[in-house]
Each structure stands twice: as structure tokens, then as C-alpha cells.
Amino acid sequence: MTDVDTLPSTKSEPASAISTAINILTSPSEAFAELEQRPTKLFPMAVVLISMILVMLWYYTIVDFDWFIDDALTLSNIPEDQMDEAREQMGSMSQTTFTAFGILGSTVFILLLWTLQAGYLSMASALNGDKFRFTNWFSLILWTALPYLLSTVGMAVTIALSPNGQLSAFDLNPLTLRNLGMVTNVDTLDRIFSQLDLTIIWGITLTVMAYKQWLQSSWIKACAIVLAPYLLILGVWAYFALT
Fold first, then answer.
1. In angstroms, rounded to a whole number, what is the distance separating the alpha carbons of residues 72 and 131?
2. Angle at which helices 28-37 and 134-143 pack, to 10 degrees?
3. For residues 225, 198, 78 and 52, what is the CA-based torsion angle, rounded to 10 degrees?
4. What is residue 3's predicted lDDT score, i.e. its pLDDT?
5. What is the number of other CB atoms lying within 10 angstroms of the CB of residue 89?
6. b/e 51-61 (16+ beta carbons within 10 angstroms → b)
7. Nearest-CA neighbor of 141 among 169, 164, 121, 166?
8. 230: Cβ–Cβ under 8 A, 6 or more apart, which residues?
9. CB neighbours (10 Å) of residue 145?
């Protein structure tokens, strides 16, 4: 009769959060194996959000507020006859209030985005009948967001190199496609390139890799499932940009 205590464990020893973070960037398959067993969330969520909040707080603290308002209105393509009214509305808020709303809005947006991404993948899992649930996908989405820390570092460097405070929000992140040279005369596409950066693409690529590994699927299926909502959104934006 076999002693149950002598049977090998199906789970490996838990890795530290730091080890998992390093593996996400350098050895993703090991990180995915760890997250499959233990879908942790607090560490990546805290690291990404706190770093983002600190950089945004620094930006709004040093930016020339009057110049920022004029720059934001210029980039927003508001009709000339409405410019004075819009400037008055923005100027009625103090820089502190504007900072609070900016940071709160960005934090809520990114949390909502993570939730929607995990919700979509959990629905795909439900339809597929696999073992992965919302908690698994939410953990994965949080960990694959860690490359965004490179954008945060880039933004900090940009702020440090702009002591006069006249730094546009569109120029803040040096890793956006727009700031890397992808410039177009189409306003909608230009805004897409202003928001999409290399670390976002990196994070999405990691999600595709994790899906393939967890579900033992083909690359085609992993790409189709993970990229479908992104391609749909980009397709809609491109349609309205070109019509």
C-alpha cells in the first residue's frame, strides 16, 4: 500500500513576488507557471498604480498650469468660438483640484480597463469550458502590466528634463508610438499613436503567451482570443478616422 505522504506534490514551492516580477520580464513561462498555481494580485497592482500616481503627481506639480490649459485646448480641436468658454471652465479649477481629478480619473480608468480585460477572458474561458476563472485572468492582467513600469520611468526622465514646466501630456511618455516617430495627419490615428506605447504591446504579447501556455492552444487561437477586442476597437477608431 502506497503511503500518501510519499507522493510528490503537484505544486512547486511558491516564488516570491520579486522573483515572479523578474520572471515576467525575463522568463515569462516560469512566471506563468507560478501564476497558474497561485494567482496573486496585490503586488503588481500596488507597484503599477503607486508608480503611476507618483509620476502623475510630479507632473501636475511642476507643469506650468496656464500653459497646460492652453496646450490641452489647442490639442482638443475645440472650435474657436468655444475656446474662451472652455478656457474659463478649466481655469476655474485650481491646480490642486485638477491634479486630484486627473489622478483619480486615471486610476479608475486603468482599474476598469483591467477588469474588462479579465472579464472578457473569463467569459472566453466559460465558453471554452476550461478551468480558468476571473481571478486567474485578473491576476494575469495585473502581472502582464508590469512592463508599463518602463513607461513610468521614461515619463519621470522626461519630467526631470523639462524644468520650465512646459511639457505637453502628449509628450510625457517617450515610448508612445507617436513619440517614437509614428506621426500622421489624421487626428484620430494620431491620438491612437499618442496613447499606444511599446510597453502596452509588450503586455498584450505576454497575455497571448500566457493563454497559449495555460490552455495548451495554438498561436493562432491564442492570438485570436486575446487580440479580438483590441482589433475591434482599433478597427472602429480607424473607420471613423478615415471616413
1. 46
2. 150
3. 100
4. 43
5. 10
6. bbeebbeebbe
7. 121
8. 204
9. 26
Please return the burial class of 219, using the count of CB atoms within 10 Å of its CB with bins 0-12, 13-18 and 19+: exposed
- pLDDT value of residue 12: 65
CA–CA separation, 110 vs 200, rounded Å?
A: 12
User: Cell numbers of 81, please?
Assistant: 468660438
State whether residue 123 is helix, strand or coil.
helix
> CA 75, CA 92: separation in Å to the nearest integer?
19
Residues 6 or more apart in contact with residue 143 via CB below 8 angstroms: 20, 21, 24, 31, 35, 44
CA distances from 84 to 39, 76, 89, 112, 160 (A): 51, 13, 9, 33, 32
Phi and psi at residue 77, to the nearest 5°: 60, 35
What's residue 9's pLDDT? 39
Cα separation of 226 and 170, whole Å? 28
CA distances from 209 to 134, 138, 140, 218 (A): 18, 15, 11, 10
Q: pLDDT below 50 — which residues of the chain?
A: 1-10
**211's grid cell:** 493563454
